[in-house]
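Why does residue order matter? Because the sequence determines the fold. Keep that principle in mind as you read this record.
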Amino acid sequence: MSCTKVIDLKLGDDTGKLVIEGNITDMSGVQYVKLSRNVTFTTTNTYPPVSGAVVSVSDGNGTNYMFTEGPSGTYSIASMKGITGNTYTMTVLTGGKTYTASSTMSGLIQLDSITAKTRELDNSKNQKEITVHYQDPAGTTNQYRFVMYVNNIQVKQVFAFNDDFTDGRYVHNNLREDDIDIYPGDTVTVEMQCIDKPVYTYWYTLMQQGGSNGPGGAVAPANPPSNISPTALGYFSAHTTQSKSIIVK
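Structure:
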């Protein structure tokens, strides 16, 4: 049997550090890299944007995609589609320093369905919790991140899983959260991302800390291991994406 190492990180309160949130997906369309500065953990989650950077992503096959800024701190390219198996490298030049990160896009694993059931604890209010269902392929290492929205509002909890104990099995993962109460009639959407190991380590560490820093969640009470070099806050992820929605009954 295998286990996951517990990472004990010190609570930090440094401010003004660069935060990079980069995502390349297998969906054809706009791809984004966001740059900002962190704030103290005790303040509101309003992060000053970083403007004037030079941002690009290469696909490992000789093509380099230049990103343009707009709005402030958000860099995008209008038309790009990631391909599974390709390794993408992000380059960010800002403040006289160059930051790089690479991520390999894992193969797509189908999200079969999402369901709702009554919460097991304190169900007197008829609150619901969401379960995701999918078949994990046997003999390969797979990592997953799930992002949940309730009535179009993103749940703050982080959900990251691997297949250490579910390789080749049909999986039913409960997405337990205490951010937004879910009731019959609510619309719930779950996005499933198939992610590589370094990105999984980032999200899993953030989940273990109870990461709840809003959409993206790139800034935590302590800094999760990042795949960005030299060290910066945040992550760069090339991943597949798919979503399913239900009206809770």
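The CA atoms of residues 188 and 246 lie 6 Å apart.
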